[in-house]
Amino acid sequence: MSQKHRTHEASDTNGPHDAHHDHAAEEGPHSTFSGYMIGFVLSVVLTAIPFWLVMNHVITDRTVAVLVLGGLAVAQILVHMVYFLHMNGKVEGGWTMLSTIFTLVFVAIAVAGTLWVMFHMNANMMPGHAGHVGHATHGGL
Fold first, then answer.
1. Residues 6+ apart with CB under 8 A from 50
2. How does DSSP classify residue 85?
3. For residue range 78-90, what is the model confidence (pLDDT) as tens digits?
């Protein structure tokens, strides 16, 4: 038997398992204990700060409060995406991040469109609402 034929025979002994790869050797979004702890501590801090701001009435202006709390909420989302979901531009060739960006753009368009339609529907359907007098005369009864 030739060397080439023996090599081919040796690979046939493993059967259908030859097609499988060792998943432990794959490059993937694996994290360490310290990575999870950093994410956990950041999550706790990004939860405690808004709670403290609201409970102690630190921010009195409603608009500023909404912007600050919204910014901290976005930071919380990013911490979860990076430290717990392991999302970055390298995983799966960037397709995970691209699909997330597409989803965010789609949701932003849907929410903005819904608010726009509802605002204009309210303004156009109820034009005389502020000056509405009502039905004061019912035929003299």
1. 68, 69, 72, 73
2. S
3. 999 889 988 887 8
CA max distance for the chain: 117
Residue 101 identity (one-letter amino acid): I
Give tens-digit pLDDT for 17-30. 555 554 444 555 56
Contact 38, 83 (CB under 8 A): yes
The CA distance from 64 to 87, in Å, is: 30
Q: How far apart, in whole angstroms, are the C-alpha atoms of residue 18 and residue 16?
A: 5
CA 20, 23, 29: angle at the middle one, nearest 5? Answer: 145
Q: Are 82 and 31 a contacting pair, CB within 8 Å?
A: no
3-state secondary structure of 28: coil
Residue 75 one-letter amino acid? A
What's CA 41's distance to the chain center, in Å? Answer: 19
| Residues sharing a CB contact under 8 Å with residue 88, sequence separation 6 or more, in sequence order | 29, 82, 97
pLDDT digit string (tens) for 62-106? 999 999 999 999 999 999 988 998 888 787 888 888 888 999 999
